[in-house]
Amino acid sequence: MSELEGKTAVITGAGRGIGRGIALELARRGARAVLVSRTAEHLAEAVELLVRADLDVVALEADIDGEAWLEALDRVAPTIDVLVNNAAAFAPYGPVESVASAEIDRVLTTNVRSALRLVRHVLPGMKERGFGRIVNVGSVAASLGATGQVAYSTAKAALVGMTRSVAIESARLGVTCNLLELGLVDTERVAEAIAPEVQEHFKRNTPVGRAGSVEEVAFAAAFLASPRASYVTGATIPVCGGLGLGMYPEQLA
Questions:
Q1: Distance between CA 5 and CA 7 in Å, rounded?
Q2: Which residue, 102, 104, 114, 195, is CA-closest to 152?
Q3: Residues 101, 107, 110, 115: is their CA dihedral positive or negative?
Q4: Taking the chain, what is the end-to-end CA distance rounded to the nearest angstrom?
Q5: Active-site amino acid positions
Q6: Of the candidates 17, 70, 16, which has an alpha carbon nearest to the alpha carbon of residue 43?
Q7: Which phi-psi region, left, alpha or beta, contains residue 56 (left: φ > 0; alpha: ψ -120 to 50)?
Q8: Of the candidates 4, 33, 26, which has an alpha carbon nearest to the alpha carbon of residue 222?
Q9: Which is nearest to 136 in space by CA: 150, 151, 122?
Q10: How far apart are CA 31 and CA 171, in angstroms?
Q11: In this structure, what is the dihedral angle of CA atoms 140, 141, 147, 151, given to the nearest 10 degrees?
Q12: pLDDT tens across 10-42, in order?
């Protein structure tokens, strides 16, 4: 549980849900966890959780959709060993022709441009020190598509190409870059954004028959962030309960 001792891990979208769970798990393994969130209330709750567990945590309230916040990041984390690009945005559900251009831009900016900008920012230091772990949080929507969420599935598909390209450029310098391809995960945001009947449809079409937990995602992310994952790079790792397998998985129910 001390394999990340002395390492600094930056986790975006860490105020709640998957980001908070990953931050907690990385800190439990010895990392100094830098939690980045645009929502002060969620960030405070996440920090309190880690502090109560006597873990090393730093809070950074920031909107990652711009570049100005990177100066603040450099002040609180002059060296970054692990980066988890978890922050995400959704457009309102609807056919692509009904989605406002501003919503499409917002989804692409948060999910892709901001993640790529952050990778570009931390990569030189990782390469120089000969160690780095980049974990991008993706979705099965990238490969399966998503009715009513074309902008989101497009953005998550872009992360796959980014992950593989960064892996190629960094592999011989001690830096890995991998992606977690998530299915339905039981989070506050899912409860808010996805109707119960849609969630049930996801579960029926997931071979294991349920949503995943934040902890299950966090364990996978922690492995990829560890020194033990040094021979894994450019990979898309499904953490989705088998969602997408078979022609009619709901027949298993």
A1: 6
A2: 104
A3: negative
A4: 38
A5: 152
A6: 16
A7: beta
A8: 26
A9: 122
A10: 22
A11: 170
A12: 999 999 999 999 999 999 999 999 999 999 999
